Amino acid sequence: KSWLNLFSGTLAGAVIFYLVTNSHAWWYDLAYAKTAAGWWQAMTVGHPQFPPTLFFFRNSLVSDLFFTGIFALVMEYRALRHAQPSLLARAQA
Question: Which residues of the chain carry a pLDDT beneath 50?
Answer without folding.
Answer: none
